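Records of this kind hold a single protein each, on a pair of labelled lines. With that in mind, the following record should read easily:
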Amino acid sequence: MNIKELDPESSPQAAFGARLRLRVERQWTQDELGTRTGYSSTHLSSVETGRKMPTLRLVRRVDEVLGVGDTFEREWREMRHGSLLEGFPEYVEHEGRAVEIRLYEIGIVPGLLQTQEYARVLADSAVRRGAITPELANERVVFLAERQAALARSQPPMMLVVMDESCIRRFVGGPEVMSAQLQKLVECAGLPNTVLQIAPFTIGERRPFDLPVNLLTLPDWSVVAYAESQAQGHLEREGVKVLPMLTAYHQLQAEALSQAASVVMIDEVRKGTL
């Protein structure tokens, strides 16, 4: 039987597929591996040749049947993170243990406050533009759900969220999706660990940020900052660079609407979707 040659250096998927051929050392065919994992040989062939992105369920089954610990799951996570902007995977690790999270977003609702339907619309839109594959779109939605779940702990972090007014004025996914998303924002504002504010268009040049900004206070009370452009993300840990961003965030909060006024604006926009 001919086995397609793979260049592990050509892509993360090819490297993963080459490693999956560990089955050959066990003298297992794709059919045999498929029987043991519960997947068809056709599906495994697509993964081995790098044509299809493996799922978390598949890699866990492969780890189990090959008896290699979590080797494939770790590689899968590294491969998935490789599709994210520089600095973001490390940011997410800090996010999961932060005691306080400050967010500022422009244009779209912050990921941690998105409904699954809203997140799905954004991911599917990226697929239609040819920016990502359908498999990667699925992984993005799953990854976001994991981030949200990581914050649902016994002592959740304090979340301070300022959204540019464009986040609620820009309709995503049609009336039903947008209405549900805006309703979730109202509900989030009612949580004891969340402060949600809208930075209205009327603050004009007094808005201190032109890009989204994330600031995390860690358990040792140090603060890290993460900001990104369309093509690049950057995690900043040096206090001399983070402190001015923290000061600017406080200035933004002072210019933004109060939480009560923000909820009124969100609800008015939501009623316009009905």
Remarks:
- Residues 122 and 138 are 11 Å apart (CA to CA).
- The domain at 12-81 is CATH 1.10.260.40 (434 Repressor (Amino-terminal Domain)).
- The chain has a mean pLDDT of 86.
- The chain has two domains: 12-81, 88-112+153-271.
